[in-house]
Model the fold of this input.
Amino acid sequence: MIQSSIANTPSLVRIVGAGFTGLACVLMALDNPHITRVEMMDPSVSRDSYNRGASSASAGLMHSLTRKGKEIWKGNDGYIASLNLIDQVELNTMRQIKQKRSKIIRKGGFNNNNNNNNNNDNDNEDCIIEGGLIVDPLEYLYGLWELAEIRAKELNKELIWDTKSLNSYDELLNLSTNINNNNGIIICTMGAGISNKIWGDDLPISYELGRNIIIDNKYNLNDALLNGEYVVPMHNYQKIIFGATHERDNDKKNVNEHYTNLRNKINKKLYPLTDLLWPEIKYNDNNENILPLNCEIRKGIRVQSQRTHLGRIPIVDKHSKIDNCYIATGFGSRGLIHHALVAEMVINAAINNDLSYIPKEMRIK
Done:
């Protein structure tokens, strides 16, 4: 990482939000020679249990292509950065994060007659997404923090997990003052936790609630099937994740609605899609609905940036009023692709107090 030449280089970084991006920021901060203490602040999970949030609800599909087969913004750079970080985690923690024998298959091909990534003559035929990777999101989250603990010990640096919450702009101001008094900076990587009420400035974001079904992989599915919705083998091929519901503009309180209502709602939204993706799982051996009463449902709220001519791209910027506070949010469904690249950008920008590390397309207009 580039070293700072600024006189008052920070020595403390507090990161708010323990998803893919937040934990990648922890590692990037630990690797900076000027940083002596890194603090993670996230009340929704503990260091040993990830059961909420968009990262933990991810299907683990990592590829850099749109539905039309075109590369997303910074898709190739993001893929390389993310793959490098995943490889580091696997090497140092011995966790199995990549499902190496799996392919990602787009059902019906890409929606683009000029797509070069589809080798089929018929655009309606299924095609393999070249370079597509399936990642176990929970193993990766555990592994990121485990690697951070290893790095902190190797580098003799302090690493703290703080379960306090951040609920208002006044709390952000107070946190900023306390951190600044200790020569520190704040990086907010919260997903659903971020809002105008907390940030203070208007953020060009929207929310999308997504819920997935987790069932046993009794069908021996090895490859991921994708076409807007997805069916993906998980947990070393023992489980299948099927989703997502894409519930836009939902009140976040609906995330915790009664299980029976939730199961019925998911049934209604996802069950008819099996005809397109995977007809053989529509009924079980007893010709019953595939969703048992005790099936696992995983949920998370995606934060999406506004659509531009470049598509939806993450939001990364410095706070307009709080000098030692930065934000990285709005990843939508592309957190796996962009998290490592964005983490390096925002850590460099914050530690060096230099916004040139952040592409202008990412900054809040």
Notes: The mean pLDDT is 83.
